[in-house]
Amino acid sequence: MRERRWAPDGPLDVGLALQPHRRGGGDPAWRRTADGAVWRTSRTPAGPCTLRVSVAGGEVLGQAWGPGADWALETLPALLGAEDDPSGFRVRHEVLADVVRRHPGLRIGRTGRVMEALVPAVLEQKVVGQEAWRAWRGLLHRYGEPAPGPAPEGMRVIPEPAVWRQIPSWHWHRVGAEAVRARTIATAAWHADKLEAARTTQELDRLLRALPGVGVWTSAEVRQRAFGDPDAVSVGDFHLAKLVGYALTGEKTDDPGMLRLLEPYEGHRHRATVLVWLSGRRPPARGPRMPARDYRAF
């Protein structure tokens, strides 16, 4: 076991910083235990690791196990948003100003790991979360490695790129992922080294969108998590435009309308949408919800 203590230079909400990496209830790569600690697995450049993050006395305590333990602790501050710079962010709407006051510890962190953000993002394309998270759990339980160290029971480490390329079509079907998403993940796995070597969010965006099956939404979702991009807007999200429109104007809008509303936040548009989510303002629910499909029955 390796250990590191880190004192952030200002307010920090560890839970908010790590929450974007959780993929639904029962995520095999993310757990919060009864003591408030967050456990997370990762496949680092040095190998798999398990990271436990807790807070005590104003300091963050990171404990890590596995070949990637040293790498995980070295990058712990970045994961928790130490490199996030909100200095250019200016609140233009009172509803967001209220969220900023209530959540002074909000920071956008970065994992530096592309594939572990890309695979679940592709699984979430054009489906409800329940369907995508079921597939994510099934794939990690079948093909992931057991988490190093004393991790909570059932935790797994995302497979290596070579494993994603070799998953048979019938098992994609069994976990509920159809051929299009399976093919997108397998293709990305062939280019994993190039994706992981990207140095800027602009370079990563270009590489991602050159892959068949990866568009604006998927690229943004990956760059938010892997690079902590505060401006990567998830254009094409089923809910986001409606939420932004309702929170900022009281009326739902579409993607072009959302981008117009976010223009004053250029450079921090993703940060603004995070604040919208935290505001809790939601348009009244009308009509049936999008159903969860089950490809396993096809």
Layout of helices and strands:
Layout: E1 2-6, H1 14-18, E2 30-32, E3 38-44, E4 47-56, E5 59-65, H2 69-74, H3 76-79, H4 94-102, H5 115-123, H6 129-143, E6 145-146, E7 156-157, H7 161-166, H8 169-175, H9 179-190, H10 192-196, H11 201-209, H12 216-226, H13 240-249, H14 255-262, H15 269-279
Antiparallel strand pairs: 1-5, 2-3, 3-4, 4-5, 6-7
Helix pairs in contact: 4-15, 5-9, 5-12, 11-12, 13-14, 13-15
Keywords: DNA damage, DNA repair
Protein name: 3-methyladenine DNA glycosylase/8-oxoguanine DNA glycosylase
InterPro entries: Alkylbase_DNA_Glycosylase/TA (IPR051912), DNA_glycosylase (IPR011257)
What do these coordinates show?
- The structure is a single chain.
- The chain is an alpha+beta fold and 298 residues long.
- The protein has a domain at 2-96: TATA-Binding Protein (2-Layer Sandwich).
- Helix content is 43%, strand content 12%.
- The chain is built from 15 helices and seven strands.
- It has helices at 14-18, 69-74, 76-79, 94-102, 115-123, 129-143, 161-166, 169-175, 179-190, 192-196, 201-209, 216-226, 240-249, 255-262, 269-279, and strands at residues 2-6, 30-32, 38-44, 47-56, 59-65, 145-146, 156-157.
- It has a five-stranded antiparallel β-sheet. It has a two-stranded antiparallel ribbon with strand order 6-7.
- Helix 4 packs across helix 15, helix 13 crosses helix 14 (255-262) and helix 13 packs across helix 15 (269-279).
- The chain is globular, with a radius of gyration of 19 Å.
- The model has no long low-confidence stretch (mean pLDDT 95).
